[in-house]
Amino acid sequence: STRIREHFGVTAISSGDVLRRNIAQGTDAGMLAQRAVSSGELVSDELVVELIRNELVTLPQSNWLLDGFPRNIAQAQALDAMLASTNQSLNAVVNLVVPEDVILHRIVERYVHVPSGRVYNLTYNPPKVSGIDDVTGEPLEHRPDDNPESFRRRLQQYHEVTEPLLDYYRRTGVLTSFAGTTSDVIYPMLHAYMDARFD
Sign of dihedral through CA atoms 127, 3, 19, 34? Predict the structure, then answer.
């Protein structure tokens, strides 16, 4: 979402960043999310919807991008209701199709600077100093659920809820999927699609 945000001038809201920020700040929602994350479970729909709603109401009437939300039908319906209440519509849903082994490798090697949401990967985007954020010099965190066992559990849950969600958006005509193994492969296709669709 960083490249899209920078090139197209949209506000990006990452559900993962919002969750991590609330966990780091120790908000009530963050403490509830921490319990779920620590046990390798998905955070409840109600909690994620509340956090995204809180983010969207702070935005002026401008273009925005939701990264990692909605993840299921209940969240999609909640988003539809949020948008209807402000006379907005969802005009594109992008599904990235990446092989599961590639995702697992990225997750196991992922480190995050929680306050900013900056994400590092030990292979393709390592910090200049191991374990330290390049910008602030603060420590990076490795999520306790970024391991193969939690990944397999989350992946099973993901498949159970994602297929119906993709069908939901396919029926509305806003879904487009892009496949690849790296952002360098996927982004040019996504960039061309957005240029054509939103020019």
Answer: negative
How much is the CA Rg of the chain, to the nearest whole Å? 17
Residues 192 and 100: beta-carbon distance below 8 Å? no
Instruction: Output the furthest CA–CA distance in the chain (Å, rounded).
Output: 47
Task: Answer whether 162's CB lies under 8 Å from 175's CB.
Answer: no
The reply to whether the predicted model has a pTM over 0.90 is no
Give yes or no for a contact between 89 and 116, defined as CB atoms under 8 angstroms apart: no
Spatial contact of 181 and 102, defined as CB atoms under 8 Å apart: yes
Per-residue pLDDT of 90-128, as tens digits, reads 889 999 999 989 988 888 899 999 888 788 999 888 999
Cα separation, 137 vs 15, in Å, equals: 24
Nearest to 161 by CA among 82, 90, 98, 68: 68
